[in-house]
Amino acid sequence: MTRENWAPMDYFKQYIDDSVFERMALCTNQRAILESGATLNTTPEELKVQVVAESMTRNRFYRLRNSIKIINDLDVSDDEKRSDLLWKIRPLLAKVRQGCLSLPRTEKLCIDEQMIPFTGRCPVRQYVPGKPYPTGLKVFVLAAPTGLVLDFVVYQGKTTFGDTGGMGIGEKAVLHLAESVPQGTHLFFDRFFTTIKLLDTLKMKGLTGTGTLMSNRIPKECKIIGDKPFKKKERGASEMVVRRSPPELAVIKWLDNKPVVMASSAYGIEPQDTRTRWSKKDKRFVQVPRPLAIAEYNTNMGGVDLVDRMLSFYRMASRTRKWTVRAVLHFFDLAITNSWLQYRSDLQFRGKKPLKLLDFKLLLGEELITQAQGGSANDSVDDYTPPRQKWKPQPNEALRHYGAIHLPEMVDETHASRCRRSNCTSRTYVMCTKCKVFLCVSKKGNCFLKYHSK
Description:
The chain is an alpha+beta fold. Helices cover about 35% and strands about 20% of the residues. It contains 15 helices and 15 strands. It has helices spanning about 10, 20-35, 45-50, 60-65, 80-85, 90-100, 170-175, 195-205, 225-230, 290-300, 305-315, 325-350, 355-375, 395-400, 445-450, and strands spanning about 110-115, 125, 135-145, 150-155, 185-190, 210, 240-245, 250-255, 260-265, 275-280, 285-290, 410, 415-420, 425-430, 430. The strands form four sheets. Strands 1, 2, 3, 4, 5, 6, 7, 8 and 9 form a nine-stranded mixed beta sheet that branches. Strand 5 (about 185-190), helix 8 and strand 6 (about 210) form a beta-alpha-beta unit. The chain is globular, with a radius of gyration of 28 Å. The relative contact order is 0.11.
């Protein structure tokens, strides 16, 4: 699929298109009728608007946010509600995941945990120590090294993955996400996921894996050097034990500031490279040898952490007691971040300078507002009357220059020229800088705007 000359909205619609807003408006109105007997009369266009102060009152905004729904409760059976704790947001999860699954896969991918921050009551809330936001909804994510999310699954307890032969949660998560990648792909994961059994199972499926390994998960038959004698060696030292019987597997121990154990079904120690490290003992930088497995892991493992950092920059962090609202906002942010990563990659490939993430998000919001205020493509320009406002802030600089091709220019001519729009008999001094035709701009009619509108 070619993405030449795509606008931010085109990238965003891969994950969340108009059908999502239509469903949200319908279910929100249905919920309002069930609870109060009166509809909110909200529309897909109203739900798109982000500049709230210019579009609705504060009370209207809070009422919409508190009533937001993506599914009609009456359409879900009791059995489905018991079997799927995420049924309230399942249509949105399916839509965003469908967009992620349609993206091309690279040869090297990573799997890690992601947290949706939420501290209120939630049937699937988890606590993961060590995370920037340790409490919330836990999501297992498959991502490219660039941060592009390719698949995900929200953890809802031991029933999330079903029975897969006595494996742990981490192993089940990797095997579940590995179903969407082609054979020959190499997966990277951290110590929470890595086991020898997992690497052997992936190998049988035509996949290879590399990950850090906990000391208590090292097989007894693996006679690798212990930590105490290993710490006496010089920094950068490495040892490897290889299992030759198929499937082949290597367990590598490397000494940096402390011993690091790695298990891999594809990489070993050689060829090594060197990295610069600070030596407290010598009070200077030194060159430390690094095994190939460690180098590949460091290069390809940070994709999920990267997208987490981008999500945290401009998160839609509206305070709410409803976990459904928090999850909906998170996956909208995820769709926007994925869209920006694709947009940036496309423009860099064409040798152009892309917008920053914040500017891209603002521009996408402006496009949603324009659609909401201007109506659908079938609406006539004559039917739209912009509301009067006392004050309106300056638009984003990137938005003012975005698509600025057709601009009016006052021409210094002796006699006015005939307006080139059909059925217009006026004369004007205004010419389009791109089309090089004269178009009138007056109180009676704005031919310049109508000429360049569908």
